[in-house]
Amino acid sequence: MRVLKSRLKLVIENPPTLYDVAREAGVSLATASRVLNGSTRTVNEEFAERVHAAASQLGYTPNLSAQAVARGASSNVALLVSDIADPYFSSIAAGVIRAAEREGLVVTIAVTDRKAAREIQLVKLLRGQRPRAIVLAGSRFTDDSDRATLVAELDAFVGTGGRVALIGQDELPFDTVPIDNSGGSRLLAQALVELGYRGFAVLAGPADLITARDRTEAFVGALPQHPVAVVYGDFSRAAGYEAMSALIDAGLEGIELVFAVNDVMAVGAMAALRDRGIDVPGRVAVAGYDDVSTARDVTPALTTVRLELEDAGEAAVALAIGGPHRQLAPAAVVLRDSTPRLSH
Amino acid sequence: MRVLKSRLKLVIENPPTLYDVAREAGVSLATASRVLNGSTRTVNEEFAERVHAAASQLGYTPNLSAQAVARGASSNVALLVSDIADPYFSSIAAGVIRAAEREGLVVTIAVTDRKAAREIQLVKLLRGQRPRAIVLAGSRFTDDSDRATLVAELDAFVGTGGRVALIGQDELPFDTVPIDNSGGSRLLAQALVELGYRGFAVLAGPADLITARDRTEAFVGALPQHPVAVVYGDFSRAAGYEAMSALIDAGLEGIELVFAVNDVMAVGAMAALRDRGIDVPGRVAVAGYDDVSTARDVTPALTTVRLELEDAGEAAVALAIGGPHRQLAPAAVVLRDSTPRLSH
DNA sequence: CTGTTAGCGCCTTCAA
DNA sequence: TTGAAGGCGCTAACAG
């Protein structure tokens, strides 16, 4: 660590400016600008060559900030996620980045840590970049005290020509790439009933996240004649482990299947069950949501609901600034070994 | 999808400028600048209040680009990763973002897709942001034809006051947060020999990635008196699956343990073994590298080498622009169920 | 097709 | 302490 390399080039000088390359090439600033960054290229070939030569000789890179001020529009898009290390968000980020790069845009990522206040603070900050678009990928919150502030901030952004795209629940007055939380949960519940399951528990995640709430409510709502225990907690693997442990301590009576509202929690729950020596799916079955990559690699492979997260990320930037994107596949139940058919 | 919400505020106007708030507050531009963004605040309290009031009333957000041009320095750091959806890189990104936010900086992320040319292209592009630092997290390449170009680009950046930090192999003339690929592989090999393993295969990943090469060579080098089969491929789960399949097709004779040079591949290999009905660790043991979260959730739990990737990300920005960071823990072998002690 | 010249939004001497 | 004014690097009319 701390390998502070000593470099020869001790003297640091300012980066070459357009003016420098213009002078070097013996042309005017405007001409240099035109050949290097201008749109309609109507420049003498020889001049153009000289400018290019000078530019590469000087190692010139256009100052994007200066371009942004002059043009009145920057070339980046801002992405807010709850937690970039979470596969749900890193998949979305991959999609956003791919689509943005395709449009020649650069992506700035900030992490909200699932805090409404932090989210607001960050859009305020990122607004300063005058990005072409702001994409909010995190879940909305059930507590809407901060909602108005966020909307106001976003409205101001839109009012000055910015574009906003949300990924998730369509409940803010901005373009949204919907993530189907309710429908998928309902389908999952139906599929599980069809498989013979009758007693359920839900690891519901944080009560203040709409994503979690929607999945929980839709699941429970689709099972009107079945008992469903609900345990709240965090959205993480550790929380899934804890919630499952609590459930085990409470006895597990009547529970044939545990639905964790995301795969990360489901994996934590499976670990808890394993540590307690409880057989999955022999004693209890487990299901998750999202279909993250790990879902098919755990044993038994995890039944879940597939979401096309990368596509959602791409769609968000397409929605905000145009460009191609695939039609979003609907949420689909993926039945795997963690929920075998039950023969009562 | 494509929920194009119609908003009331049809007229889009330009964002309020510092000049606007100054006028609104009845003070000069300079004064407004001082109270809002200036360093040494030596401003009449009443003026200050008026400015703040005007700013929030107008919804003013300082134009970061303009600040950057005027100040000659921006407030962001650029991060290049191979693939943001890969847990190795999303962990690093989490660390980089955390550290950067702590310093009031914003992180721009670009994806190189493990292409040397793309990497160069991206640093060239991102240099245009005049970021405070550029962090390169992807592996270096064995083919050094592009190396000089990259170094030149980075050198130019440093020559103009930029900071560069690499994460990975310390083989470019810039500050580097080392990732211990060789040492960990060696420790792993020793631990495995100690457990009784005698015949090995390595899923070596891409031949042109130094990270992959170092892990492979160190592992092989630590086992001078043992046969080691090496299979090259990609760095992905799918590639791990394929490479393992090839190995199975080839017979698997004499192979007691398969070392995949990263966990993602190892997980793919385990899937291949499972699909072929080959028992792990009964018939072959498996080990990986990185200790991604999934490693402990597969069955059997995967033996691997732990790297503190988030810490590495934080350390990189600390190295580049200062700030606190934890001492990096050395690579550590984590023995799990996929490599039980062998009783020949 | 080329060059001149205002700006873009902000910071920062420099006087007052 | 405050304001006026020049400048940061670049773009985009506007003449030539």
CATH topology of the largest domain in chain A: Rossmann fold
Strand portion of chain A: 5-15%
Distance between the termini of chain A: 60 Å
Give the class-level CATH name of the largest domain in chain A: Alpha Beta
Strand order of the largest sheet of chain A: 2-1-3-4-5
Structure description:
Two copies of one chain form a homodimer. Chain A has three domains: 2-62, Orthogonal Bundle (434 Repressor (Amino-terminal Domain)), CATH 1.10.260; 74-178, Rossmann fold; 181-308 and 329-334, 3-Layer(aba) Sandwich (Rossmann fold), CATH 3.40.50. The first copy, chain A, is built from twelve helices and eleven strands. The first copy, chain A, has helices at 18-25, 29-36, 45-58, 64-71, 87-102, 116-127, 147-159, 182-194, 210-221, 237-249, 263-275, 309-321, and strands at 76-81, 106-111, 133-136, 163-168, 175-178, 200-205, 228-232, 257-260, 285-287, 304-306, 332-334. Chain A has a five-stranded parallel β-sheet with strand order 2-1-3-4-5, sandwiched between helices. Chain A is elongated and about 85 Å long. Chain A starts with 17 loop residues before the first helix and ends in a 10-residue tail after the last strand. Chains A and B meet through helix 4, helix 5, strand 2, helix 6 and helix 7 of A and helix 4, helix 5, strand 2, helix 6 and helix 7 of B. Strand 2 (106-111) of chain A pairs antiparallel with strand 2 of chain B. Chain A binds a DNA duplex (16 and 16 nucleotides) through residues 15, 17-19, 27-31, 33-34, 37-38, 42-44, 47, 62-63, 65-72.
